[in-house]
Amino acid sequence: MIDFSVPTEVTTFIRQLRDFIHDDVVPLEGTLVDEDFRGGDGRLETEVLPPLREKARQAGVYGPQIPEEFGGLGLPLTTLAFVSEVCGPHPLASLAINMMAPDEATMHLLEMFGSDEQHERWLRPLAEGRIRSCFAMTEPDAGSDPSRISSLARRTGAGWRIDGHKVFTSGAVGAALCVVMAASDPDAPRRDRVSMFIVPTDAEGFEVVRELKPMGYRELGGLCEVRLSGVEVGSEALLGDLGAGLSMAQARLARGRLGHAMRWIGIAQAALDLAAERALQRETFGQQLSKRQAIQWWLADGATQLSASRLMVLNALWRIEQGVPHKAQISMIKTYVAETLDKIVDDALQVFGGWGYVTDFPLERWYRDARAARIYDGPSEVHRWAVARELLNEVETTGTARRISGDVLGQLI
Ligand SMILES: Cc1cc2nc3c(=O)[nH]c(=O)nc-3n(C[C@H](O)[C@H](O)[C@H](O)COP(=O)(O)OP(=O)(O)OC[C@H]3O[C@@H](n4cnc5c(N)ncnc54)[C@H](O)[C@@H]3O)c2cc1C
Description:
Elements: H1 8-29, H2 34-37, H3 43-58, H4 77-87, H5 91-96, H6 103-113, H7 116-127, E1 133-136, E2 152-155, E3 159-170, E4 177-183, E5 194-200, E6 206-212, E7 223-234, E8 238-239, H8 245-281, E9 283-284, E10 287-288, H9 293-322, H10 327-351, H11 363-373, H12 380-398, H13 409-412
Parallel strand pairs: 1-4
Antiparallel strand pairs: 2-3, 3-7, 4-5, 5-8, 6-7, 9-10
Helix pairs in contact: 1-3, 1-4, 4-8, 6-7, 6-8, 8-9, 8-10, 8-11, 9-10, 10-11, 10-12
Bound molecules: flavin-adenine dinucleotide.
């Protein structure tokens, strides 16, 4: 029998986390604005975050995904998925427990591919929340297709000299390190061209040119344009194998995409609950909104899509644990959950009418944030394309797309 029960240790931890968010995070949320999460005046990072992280440590919820040897809790992936969901509507909560993008993914990347020296120099201070990181893959002419990357890493006697122009680098203001993807062998075949380098942001020639101004998206350190002009780094700056940058980026993104999906599920659930509460309270033309079929259908469709989203994530987690292929499932989740979030938040905003459009309620912010989910970590169209390619290949070789379309028996027979 398929077992959907959640172990007691997971529910106990999630309860602890919920209490921490309720008691320590929610009261601070109203005092922060979007600008605080961008470059801002640094108040969030210097005044708000340190005492909040101390409280998170005392509450036993700090660093759920960080390995125990680096001071975290080292919780399993399934628990982390629930953690992401609970933190979803509260970006400050993810920051408080040090499980926010892009540092969560950088730590995972360092854990998977870093040397002992890189672990001590970078992973430990990241895990302890003493420094922040950013990840620079996207360029003005290389977004969805990172094999087009034109930033160059040339060998010098002592290491590498990097030149490049990056955009959409989340968190670059105030970051101590930037993981830069650059072509180390520009003429090599696509999969071997690009490598990853850890660049200290105080290196000469590393410059945050400007902060882009996004319509939403609360992430500490802004969304930035970055330039690297003859940045010299030692040979120890190379992360992982030479030429393995693209496959490492996929490994980094796979787990990040599941984390995002669960955060989006958390936000969509909060929006659906708000919409249902409002529909029960609000009367127009002598009747509650909740009695109108148009509103009921939005709520029912939202709950249905959320339910499917959750099952998709659980199935992907199961596949990861079983070592069963899951690339197509991650792409489906990235697309489906991002679009579900967009739809539910949009419908909820409509249920609130004009009140959904102003800042008295969180819906207008979630609406702005949700729009980006269909773009970052691969636009929906690129993920659909990836699923279709795998599906067609599967049908060509086996005569059926059962495995791709979630048939559990398809794994076994
Ligand atoms: C909020 C936010 C945060 C981000 N953070 C980071 C970060 O920290 N680090 C980083 O390196 N990057 C980051 N990015 C960049 C992000 O990953 C890119 O925006 C994304 O990969 C798309 O690239 P692009 O914007 O250049 O669009 P393009 O590659 O120009 O694509 C434009 C559109 O073309 C269509 N398209 C492209 N390819 C196909 C295809 N094969 N089939 C059908 N349609 C297609 C899609 O509709 C797509 O939206 C961030 C972006 C946002 C919005």
